[in-house]
Amino acid sequence: MGNLRNLDVRSSAKRFFRNVLVDSSLGFQLFSIVRQAATLVVGIILARSTLSLFEIGIYEAWMYLGLFIMLFGVSGVLQALASRFSSISDAERGNVLWNVYLLILCLASIATLGLIAFKDFLESHIFNLAEIPHFTPAVIFLGLHFSASIFPFILLLQNKSTFFLPVSFVYGLSHILAISVPLYLGLGLEMIVQALLFFAIVQHIFIWYLLKGKGFGIMFSFLRPFLVISVPLILYLAIGYLAQIFDSWLVNWHYADIETFAIFRYGARELPGALALAGSFTTAAVVLLSKDLDHGLKRIQRGTRKFLHLFFPIAIVLMMTSPHLFTWVYGPSFSSSAFVFNTYLLLLISRWFFPHAILMAKEDNLVLFLTAVVELILNVGISLALVYRFGLVGIAMGTVMAFFLEKCLLTYLVLRRHKIDFRHYVPIRLLGKYTMVTLVAYTFSLYWFGYSS
């Protein structure tokens, strides 16, 4: 029987990878999973290295600064591109991709220069530190790294499905080596940031390879209306990043301790693979919904069912084991991170609602922005109210509650404005059952492991 199960697993894996080679949407999801998996592996390597908790906190501070770069619209421009690409003629698509790449590079460069200009303010008022080591090269890496995030979109939109498998493997391995090799050689944070810079430059070289021969003229006739459409979507996603910035700032403000900041950041992560799949699935769904609404809704419904069956059982098991797991994987210093992680697992309850994908496909982006503002206000208010009573878990709970309320509001607006009932894209009964079990498991884990703020 065991051999039969192993054969079935191997055949399923082979079938998945074969499908990746012919389906760009699956390839895009694979790349997103690999990217998040590499980030998880990097976290483990850092925690198990000879770096002190303070030095790990500095690395997390670098990554946190990346959120400020994302505020400048990188994700919003990419999502707007996904929703508009099907309406662009084949002859112009290559040139459009080049123009969007330049636009993203410009936005990331402005953000990078802004962070460098406000270096002293960020160090003293955000991190309560006299200095963040290697601040400037770290910020330059982040600007290059996030502006290079267009390349999986290029592969998706140009339907280069055969690229995803090798590119995902090389990307994940390169990211891990950029961290692990300097640590193995005992070279510390300075060499890590230089290796990361090289990693980011290679990503841009790959983008130039993908876009060669596609036409390099500036298309003002495309950029002007594209920016008008993109701005509300940019603002919507920027609000989401503001919420993440606020959560980590609140940790620094309340605890004034870079070590506690590192502990929170290690826990403030969703279930590995879930966020990556949800994000890539949203992008693929926007493309499908833009072409054929009914077909897109059916794909969302089918995909959501698979994700629920995959991720909720894993989340429930993790809730019951994470305090031991975090101590074993990251070390005793990060045992408290497990309770933050358990709280962030609750985001699964609303992560698999995709009303925002429908609104993006309908280019109803102003509504997205306004609901994001509501979510941010709720997040700030709830987190401030709960941090004194529940500590780091209270901050995480503010995020979970605000995100759930925002998804409920978006679901209502899709029904009200576009007459699309949530039952057409949400398997509500299945989600309800998993939600009840997950909440019971979460409550039990807090009492069983004796959480205290």
- Molecular shape: globular
Quaternary structure of the protein: single chain
Largest sheet: none
Structural class assignment: mainly alpha
Percent helix among the residues?
A: over 70%
- Give the rounded overall mean pLDDT: 86
**How many β-strand stretches?**
0
In the predicted model, the low-confidence regions spanning at least 5 consecutive residues are none
Give an overview of the whole structure.
This protein is 82% helix and 0% strand. With 453 residues, the chain is an all-alpha fold. It folds into two domains: 24-235, no CATH class; 269-453, no CATH class. Helix 3 packs across helix 5 (90-117). The chain is globular and about 60 Å long. The mean pLDDT is 86.
Topology:
Blueprint: H1 2-20, H2 24-47, H3 53-70, H4 74-84, H5 90-117, H6 119-126, H7 135-147, H8 151-157, H9 161-184, H10 188-211, H11 220-255, H12 258-267, H13 274-291, H14 293-329, H15 337-345, H16 348-351, H17 355-361, H18 365-390, H19 392-418, H20 428-448
In short:
This protein is mainly alpha-helical and 453 residues long. The protein contains 20 helices and no strands. The model has no long low-confidence stretch (mean pLDDT 86).
